[in-house]
Write a structure and sequence with these properties.
The protein has three domains: 70 residues, OB fold (Dihydrolipoamide Acetyltransferase, E2P) (Beta Barrel), CATH 2.40.50; 159 residues, Rossmann fold; 84 residues, no CATH class. The N and C termini lie far apart (67 Å). It contains twelve helices and 13 strands. By secondary structure, it is of the alpha/beta class. It is globular. The chain has a six-stranded mixed beta sheet with strand order 10-9-8-11-13-12, sandwiched between helices. Helix 7 crosses helix 8. Strand 12 and strand 13 form a beta hairpin.
């Protein structure tokens, strides 16, 4: 059995300050209905999924404290970072993705999966959660001109580190080693079929099976079905996640401001302080920003606003919208929408 020190597992002063005497730190590696997998200084363990954990909320990458007398986890430590999304089914609660992540590898590929609007969502999620986003463009060896995808990514996501690579290339782990060293935690996020499992195998030495992708849209079936944390060759830890078909942001205003920092900066130069960047004269944003990028920014800002509405606010908005359409004809509605 391999043993690790707590610093090797990602423990630092932030967690030491929360340590209660006699309780034992364990890091969560996987989660199941009735138990959680953990690893600590004594090696891997299975701990019961207690009511305390359910009430506090627990996810892969968390640190929990175990009572040595009962053998039960009693506390989830405050996180340094937390990646989460709005529940796509209910849109009312949050789903925890991973905790205490230093770097988020946003994985796309050099084919039809590449989608700037989706990447902006992933990067907003990373910034909001406190992780550094890095874009990994896989399957560069299969693309006629992978440089086009790399250039488009750097143009659309200013300041972002981008790596176009072949995950099967033996040099890939060395290329990303700076993010994967001892005590560091990396998470992978992307749609199915982009090569997350292949990249996981390259970084960890595992031999997980991969699935073929559809040629029509470059999408694949879920190879990874649950989040789990694995030791990387470089000494750090990797949290793999299932492919996400839908990613709704949750309370992500700061993350969106980071992704669209150019728009936020330009807005200070507009003629009017309350400029909506639509038709106002002297709008510095509309003059400098591509219409498609501005449209995506509006969409995400509106989505974030509505996702954070209270139930009462949502009902009031629905009533006002309903009143506006009461008695209206299809022709008048179309005219109001500018059709």
């Amino acid at each position: 059995m391999t043993h690790y020190t707590l610093p090797e597992l990602g423990w630092n002063a932030h967690f030491t300050a929360q340590l209660t005497e006699n309780l034992i730190p364990q890091r969560v590696t996987d989660i199941h209905k009735s138990f959680i997998g953990t690893i600590g200084a004594a090696g891997p363990e299975r701990l019961n999924m207690t009511l305390d954990l359910v009430e506090q909320g627990v996810t892969v990458g968390d640190w929990v404290l175990k009572d040595p007398e009962t053998g039960q986890p009693v506390q989830v430590l405050a996180r340094q970072s937390l990646l989460k999304r709005r529940n796509a089914r209910t849109n009312m609660d949050d789903q925890l993705i991973a905790a205490n992540v230093d770097t988020l590898f946003v994985v796309s590929s050099c084919n039809k999966d590449f989608n700037v609007a989706r990447l902006e969502r992933y990067f907003a999620l990373a910034h909001q959660g406190g992780a550094e986003p890095v874009l990994i463009l896989t399957k560069a060896d299969l693309a006629e001109n992978p440089g086009e995808y790399e250039s488009e990514a750097m143009r659309s996501l200013p300041g972002v580190m981008v790596y176009a690579l072949n995950a099967l290339d033996p040099a890939t782990p060395d290329m990303l080693a700076g993010y994967c060293g001892e005590g560091q935690t990396v998470a992978l996020l992307g749609t199915s079929g982009v090569g997350k499992t292949t990249l996981t195998n390259a970084l960890t030495g595992l031999a997980q099976r991969t699935q073929d992708i559809r040629s029509s849209d470059a999408r694949g079936r879920h190879t990874t079905t649950a989040r789990s944390m694995h030791r990387m060759r470089a000494g750090g830890w990797l949290i793999d996640t299932p492919g996400m078909r839908a990613l709704r942001l949750s309370d992500a205003r700061e993350g969106l401001e980071a992704v669209f920092a150019d728009i936020e900066k330009l807005a200070t130069r507009c003629k009017f302080n309350d400029c909506a960047h639509e038709s106002e004269p002297g709008c510095a944003v509309r003059e400098a920003v591509e219409p498609d990028r501005l449209k995506r920014w509006r969409k995400l800002m509106n989505e974030d606003h509505y996702s954070n509405e209270t139930v009462a606010e949502s009902r009031a908005r629905y009533r006002n919208l309903h009143k506006g359409h009461r008695g209206a004809t299809p022709q008048s509605i179309a005219k109001r929408k500018g059709r």
